[in-house]
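Contributing new records

If you add data, match the layout below exactly. Sequence lines come first and carry their own label; structure lines follow with theirs. Keep one chain per record. Anything else will be rejected by the validation script.
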Amino acid sequence: MAMGHEATTSIRVINLDRSVDRRQAFMQMAGGTELDWAFFPACTGITEPLRYDDRVAARRWGRPLSPAEIGCYSSHFKVWEWLANSDYDQAIILEDDVIVDWAIMEKLAINKFSDYGINLLRLHISYPFNWKMVQYRLFSPNTHLIRIVGNVPGAVAYLLTRAAARVLVSNYSIVAAPLDWILARYWEHRIIGYCMFPFPVIERHSPSTIGDERHAVSQRTVYDRIARIGWRIHGRAQRGYVERCLIKRYPLGPTKDSGPPFLPSSPPPQGQPTASGGPAADVVPVGIGGDMRLSSRERTQYAE
């Protein structure tokens, strides 16, 4: 039986300085937890080392990004940057307009997900999406692990490992699309998106600080439209290859809806690893195909 080890996990909650009501509401909700958590200052615009160009955004996303979308991207990117340079194994990244099941957060925090080849675990998704079952009974008979199939937006709550943060920081300093769109493109950055179901985090029903800009239609030149069509065709080909050739049907082994939970729900005795049925830590590939990094050609294509 393979062994996993207890993780060092921190929770970072992205919050604008002016969003006092949201900050106070979250502090009240988190008052009873002993987990390592803190607010992370949100950005309101582009910040170093990020770069943004309307033309690049039009060719990738279909229109220029709004200031709020750029600020959202910058905020999450700075959390990735912080995690990539930290001593934590992983971080749970939340936006401040969520309701959290802290009991599940405690279970997530003690498990080192990179030991199981999981580098991105989405904790809430706002849209209907396609999925494939990966592991029944993740923590209990009523919690399960699924894999996200396709481009599924949303980034209000997710667990990210340090290795994945380094990949994102290294390859996505050019802002060309909304943050959640980038996070979802597993066929590009090779960070497979998993999701816990039922969701342990719920988004509050409140007005979005981003607004409806992502649904707007902008005027684009013929060349920009052709460039975007070519980019989308390339992305679909990449996704088809990754889905058919690189992702295993059951990456954690066969699963059935019976027996004990797959992951432990409490820390192991001091100095002892946690037992699991997952793959051994020293043989787990990072991402798929053993490498999450983009090639120099892919980075160049993204920046064009």
